[in-house]
Design a protein that fits this description.
Blueprint lengths: L1 E6 L8 E6 L1 E5 L2 E6 L3 E7 L5 E4 L2
Antiparallel strand pairs: 1-2, 1-6, 3-4, 4-5
């Protein structure tokens, strides 16, 4: 499991969420962070995601 920082606004560095997940997938209009057998722990509209960084 890794820790991800999801940047949601390219003009404001404080606009992010951190999540622990096994990975992420783009599913339609959402980027979903999943654990285990595909349980979603965070879903963010893909159009808002500007950067995903592994921080752990």
């Amino acid at each position: 499991m890794a820790k991800y920082r999801v940047q949601k606004n390219p003009f404001k560095s404080s606009d992010y969420e951190e999540v622990e997940a096994d990975g992420f997938i783009e599913d339609g209009s959402y980027t979903k962070f999943v654990v285990g057998a595909g349980d979603v722990v965070l879903a963010v509209p893909t159009k808002l995601v500007t950067k995903i960084t592994v921080i752990d």
